[in-house]
Amino acid sequence: MGTSLAVYPFAGLVDKVKEDVPRLLINLTEAGLDMFSLFPYIFNSGLCYQDEDNYRDVFWRGKTDDGAWKLAELLGWKTELEELIKTELRKIDKKEMMDAKSVDCDVATTIV
Fold it and tell me: At a CB cut-off of 8 Å and minimum separation 6, what does 111 contact?
């Protein structure tokens, strides 16, 4: 998601999955098509979403967040993702409030 697939080690993940595993690239631009020509000793073939005989690779053009939301929706996970995000944001807010209170107490103790 959101990568040029040109920087290793992340780019190497494309060829680390089994042949029967679907691969989805969510990105603003196409990437990862001919990795072998760039790094012949590291990569096997790259993504094949433009090939006629492609059976597992998909390119979704767009912003990463939009693609992730669309995927969650298609898989029936949208509500679960929304709840997960709300829960995690509440945790972050609570931690930030606790950290702010801790800083206030430390400052007050230092002044006294």
Answer: none
Longest Cα–Cα distance in the chain: 75
* Helix locations, 24-77, DSSP H: 35-38, 64-74
- Using 70 as the pLDDT threshold, list the residues of the chain that sit under it: 1-5, 33-45, 104-112
Q: What are phi and psi of 52, to 5 degrees?
A: -60, -40
Give the pLDDT score at 61.
94
Q: 23, 54 in Cβ contact below 8 A?
A: no
Beta strands in the chain (DSSP E): 23-27, 57-61
Structure tokens at 68: 């992730």
| Neighbouring residues of 17: CB distance < 8 A, sequence distance ≥ 6 | 23
